[in-house]
Amino acid sequence: MAILIDSFNQKFTEYTYFYNLRMNNRVTQLSCAILTLIFILSYTSLSQGIDDRTSEQVFGLLDPVFGVDQRLVSGSYYYGPSRGSISGNPYFIDETWKRGSVTIGNRTYADLDLKYDIEMNQIVLKFTNIDNAALQISLRSENINRFVMNNRLFIPFPEINEEGLIQFCEVIIAGEISYYILKYKTLMLSRGGTTDYIYQEYAKQFLQINNRLIPFKTRRIIYNLYPEHKQKLKSYLRSQGLIPGRNRINDRKAMVEYCNQLVSDQN
After folding, report:
1. What is the value of pTM for the model shown?
2. Which of 61, 175, 181, 199 is the right S-S partner for 260, CB 3.0 to 4.6 Å?
3. What single-letter DSSP state applies at residue 91?
């Protein structure tokens, strides 16, 4: 019974937070009625087993009233990266906020301030509440179809990681051959330098062809997949002065784009 009461209190606190987050000068009676509805639904969820469906139902009822982004602002507080003697940052790009958008279902939320913390695997949204206080929320990854940050597209990586978590990869090319980059960072002890710790970045590159993921290690991967285009690809790389090594993303992008063109012309 104590566990049930604690869960009830936690659920009620959650709904009250989101209510207060978007509360404004609308008619008091309407606001009280909605809060009462949340309270009733919370009680119902306890009697049937608490799950996320009840939250979605409540947000669906609140949307017509507030007309805003309850489904978007549906995660937990983000408290920022570890503090101390640390070199680097845990983000996909850098520590500054990037303008972008998030797509959930068939709805896209534009003009957002975003970061992608790839150490914690959290997409972070900054927004200002009605008290003019800046808040940071970690968005729920399972709800997100895609997001754009600094004009760069990210989608859920086609494979779930070993922990069963959804990660997001950057889409370099989308086409017959798609080209993805998946990054993550870990906090490591520094081996010298001016700080005690350092963020170490790891990156993996993949090609996706017919829903098949293939590690993009060298250009030979493409030669082997499309032997009929091998000579044309080699000539193109020479003529353009391209060396599609692991760290030459733009050169690899150009090679994949040209290969997609060859495949399209063949079809």
Report:
1. 0.71
2. 175
3. B
